[in-house]
Amino acid sequence: MDDQVEKPTAPQKACPICGKPQSEATRPFCSSRCRDVDLNRWLKGTYVIPGRDDEVDDVE
Q1: Mind listing the pLDDT tens digit for each residue in 23-59?
Q2: Residue 37 domain-assigned (yes or no)
Q3: Which domain holds residue 18?
Q4: Segment 8-18 mean pLDDT
Q5: Could you tell me if residue 58 is inside a domain?
Q6: Which of 14, 25, 30, 53 is deepest in the core (most CB within 10 A)?
Q7: pTM as predicted
Q8: Cα–Cα distance between 50 and 57 in angstroms, integer?
C-alpha cells in the first residue's frame, strides 16, 4: 500500500490588502506589513460595523 497519501490542497487565497498570495505565518495576509495596514485601518475607524440609528442604550 501507499504510505504517503497526498492531501488535496485548497486554492491559495489572496491577501485582502494587496492581493498577493497569503503567507502561512501571517494568514490571511501576505506579510506583517499588510497585517499592520489592516490594524491601522481598524484603529482609525476606516472599517465600521453599521448599526441602527433607533437603538437605545439600556441604562439602569
Answers
A1: 999 999 999 999 999 999 999 999 888 887 776 666 6
A2: yes
A3: 13-45
A4: 83
A5: no
A6: 30
A7: 0.62
A8: 16
